[in-house]
Amino acid sequence: MGAATSPSAIAAGTITSINPATGQPIGEVPDMGADEVRAAVAAARTAQKDWARLPLETRCRRIARFAEVLMSRAEEVIDLLVREGGKTRMEALGMEVVVVADLVRYFAKHAPEMLAPEPVPLHLMKHRASYLHFVPRGVVGVIAPWNFPFSIPIGETMMSFIAGNGVVLKPSEVTPLIALKAKELFVAADLPPDLFQVVTGRGGTGAALIDAGINYCVFTGSVATGKKVAAACGERLIPCTLELGGKAPAVVCGDADIDRAAQAITWGGFANSGQVCASVERVYAVESIHDSLVEKITKQARELRQGDAGAQDVDVGAMAWDRQVDNVETLVDAAIASGATVAAGGKRRAGAGMFFEPTVLVNCTQDMDVMRKEIFGPVIPIMKVQNEEEAVRLANDSHLGLLAYVFTRDRERGKRLAERIEAGTVMINDVLNTYACPETPWGGVKHSGIGRTHSLLGLRDLCDTRHVNHDRVALGREVWWYPYKEGTFRALLRGARLLFGKRPWSR
Question: Which residues are designated catalytic?
Answer without folding.
Answer: 243, 277
